[in-house]
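Cross-check.
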Amino acid sequence: MLDDDTVAELTKVTDAFIPEFQGGDGTAIDAPGSEEHDAADAGDVNQEKIVKGRRG
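Predicted model, tokenized:
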């Protein structure tokens, strides 16, 4: 288990580190877990089929 001082220090450095990440447009991303996205269109989803090869 980590003591309270260690947890506080980890939280502090993590909070300082997160803004360094940038999205594709060069702007800083928000905190993890705040991502927003739309569902993929059914036509964009491909179903692959695994076929067992025959040895001859």
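The helical segments are 4-17. The two ends are 59 Å apart (CA to CA). Passed to J.P. for a second look.
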